[in-house]
Design goal:
With 73 residues, the protein is an all-alpha fold. It is built from three helices and no strands. The chain is extended and about 50 Å long.
């Protein structure tokens, strides 16, 4: 099915991010531990690339660092 085949109605509207997150929260998933605030120096072009991907660049950097940690551990 292509995205263009999806029909949204008042009864079945397009899901917003808040709607999806609300569903996750209601299911009782455990919250993630708080993150530590640090100062990290990265190359300007690397930071610019992450920021160009849109909001959430710090979360994406964290996910990449976590994937690396899990791979080498």
């Amino acid at each position: 099915m292509a995205d263009s085949d999806i029909v949204f109605t008042a009864e079945h509207p397009e899901a917003s991010t808040q709607f999806i997150v609300g569903g996750i929260v209601r299911r009782g998933l455990q919250p993630v531990p708080p993150k530590a605030a640090i100062s990290l120096r990265v190359d300007a072009d690397v930071l610019a690339w992450f920021k160009a991907q849109g909001p959430g660049y710090q979360t994406r950097i964290n996910a990449i660092l976590r994937a690396y940690k899990d791979q080498v551990a």
